[in-house]
Amino acid sequence: MKSIATSVVRHRWWVIGFWLVALVAGGAAASAVPDRLTYDFSLPGQEGWETSLELQEAYGISGELSYVPVYTAPEGEGIAEHRDDLAGIDRALEQLPGAQVVGYAGTGDERFLTDDGRSAFSLLIRPTPEGFEDPLAAQMEQILTRSAEQTGLGVEITGYQQLAADSAQDSEGPSVLAETLIGGFGALIVLLFVFASFLAFVPLLVAAVAILSTFLVVLGLTYVTDVSFVVQFLIALIGLGVAIDYSLLVVSRWREERAHGAGNDEAVITAVRTAGHAVLASGVTVAISLIALVVVPVPMLRSMGFGGMLIPLISTLVVLTLLPALLSLAGPRVDWPRIRKENHASSGWAAWARGVVRYRWIAAGVGSAALALAIVPVFGLQFGLTSSESLSDSGQAHDTLVTLEEQGVGSGVLSPITAVVDSAQDVPALVAAAEKVDGVRMAVPLEPSPSGATGVVVVPELETVDNSSVAIADDLREAVAELPGYVGLAGAGPTVQDYQAAVFDRFPYVLALIAVITFVLLVRTFRSVLLPLKAVLLNLFSLAAVFGLATWFWQEGNGSEAIFGVGATGAMEFWLPVLIFAFLFGLSMDYEVFLLARMREEYDRTGSTDRAIEEGLGRTGRLITSAALILFFAFAALAATPDTAIKVAATALGVGILLDATVVRMLLVPALVSLFGRYNWWLPAGLARILMVEPSPLRPEKLQGTTEDDRRPARVGQ
């Protein structure tokens, strides 16, 4: 690190010139990246996905979700009297690319009618649109509007896509750029408080370079592999928070060294050698937690792993090169007015540290109890799709669905299951078996495809969107799997099951990979066995608490309606837990590294664990709290997006950062370090040789403040 810093200072104009070019090129790339991102939700090798490919080949449909046109006869008439009109509307809808329509007009099945006989519904099954908007929605609306005018019937449409579209229209959020600017403004307020000088603008400049440079690299990555649309949000807002957090640590150490009498370039080199080393460890830890997503056989998550990995790596590279160059060139001039001094550790945080050390058992107990209380709801966590109730509580699609439910038609029409058989002769047996399954409203065959393969649309009574409601898919599969010609099931329910198999069956491997690599990295960073073990375990408990809070707030709806206008989701989107885990594990570990690296430095200087806690927390407490607030503002801006899944991810990450920076890092970590005493710092010689670091033998613990030397600030460069 010292060599890197020295080289950067010596060639600072070349470094600044390089990043200036990257900034300009990244600005151009940022506008091109969104058009090259993918909406790939495929699950290769899973039954539901492979069956949907069979449907795509046979009919041009995916079978996952349906649109539900609803027709209502004039007052005093029954809808059955208008069967010919319904047939004409269905034929018009079938002209849409890949559309298949089943309903009362074609089947005469009275189960397509409401209890009062005045309304009927059809199922319009089409390919799942790519992206958040259906490009044929306007054409479909025109067909239905024209049909209503020609027939005199009331014609409305509902469906999962319509409910989601209404929700998006009701809560249109800011663009990615606007969200980034909102997060940046919040970060600036915190930075002004921390530095109380024009130096507050330097981390924002570093963040801008890091974000746009990441967009530039991601643009190149899109020509090599698919990159998920989610990555653009992560680059802008997580990149903002990470780059500023890392800059905050290095700049604060630079100011501290200058306050102790070091020259400017000497202070820059020392800051990079010490704080920069912690930044490098943190950046690599975040990158590792994200690249581990490649273990999951889901293209979307794998692309998030590759794309997300670039965010901390490029931020780290910018902070370790551009930031020292800027500080060397103009640091003292922009550090004006110097209202806040860095000669000594924060008296408030040092006092807090002494209090935690004195009452360490109580502190450890309170922190553990707080985490345990937050963890409790996680045992009711459901995975799947957001429930229809939380998608929209107003609008035409919502009102139409409510009318159907009031007239005896359950929400299962939103998520039919499509079974596929090899030929039409196998259909009658499958229909008979399917209709005997509890919870099935009806089973209706499609017309045989040119290849002979035939789909049977099975309509459950209730929507199948999470891992408790998809039991009907298991029951249906058990009833029909042994029948001749059976190919498989497709639809929302089978898709939820596919994700459970593809994602969560592999999740223990992801967890183990991240934990082991992180543990080894931290053993080298802290030269300790116990500190890394504690760090990994505390991170896992902290993550469990975050999922518990997300379950309580979003899934159970305790406050989501009041704050975001979104009712209880009933489940967490199946791709979110792994993504939240990967990002939050790495981001939370940032603060662990910042805090423990400084404690290790102070322990090596004084030999006192209590003194290390006081000085380490006194020096980093304000930084960690400020860094957490900056990331929280970034995630709060991201939560303004209209998509419910992104809201869930943003709030989980934001609350997780605050929980980790307060309860865990400011309470549990110092309490446990105090309890473990000299064993915190032990690294046996054999393990040290393997990891190529200096050993750290057990040594007698010094009492806090034993000598006057221990109370003096460290000498510059020490």
Describe the structure.
The protein is α+β, with helices and mostly antiparallel strands. The protein folds into three domains: 181 residues, Multidrug efflux transporter AcrB transmembrane fold (Up-down Bundle), CATH 1.20.1640.10; 199 residues, ACT domain (Alpha-Beta Plaits, 2-Layer Sandwich); 212 residues, Multidrug efflux transporter AcrB transmembrane domain (Multidrug efflux transporter AcrB transmembrane fold). It has 27 helices and ten strands. Helix 1 packs across helix 12. The longest helix is centred in the middle third of the chain and has 36 residues. The chain is elongated and about 95 Å long. The C terminus is likely disordered. Keywords: Cell membrane, Membrane, Transmembrane, Transmembrane helix.
CATH homologous superfamily of the largest domain?
Answer: Multidrug efflux transporter AcrB transmembrane domain
Structural class: alpha+beta
Into which percentage range does the β-strand content fall? 5-15%
Please, what is the average pLDDT?
A: 87
Rg estimate, integer Å: 30 Å
- The share of residues in helices is 55-70%
Q: Given the C-alpha coordinates, what overall shape results?
A: elongated
- Which parts are unreliable, with pLDDT below 50 for 5 consecutive residues or more? 706-718
Main pleated sheet:
4 strands, antiparallel
What is the correct CATH architecture of the largest domain?
A: Up-down Bundle
Note the gap between the termini: 15 Å
Strand order of the largest sheet: 2-3-1-4
Tell me the CATH topology of the largest domain.
Answer: Multidrug efflux transporter AcrB transmembrane fold
- Number of β-strand runs: 10
Question: How many domain modules?
Answer: 3
What is the class of the largest domain in the CATH system? Mainly Alpha
- Enumerate how many helices there are, as a single number: 27
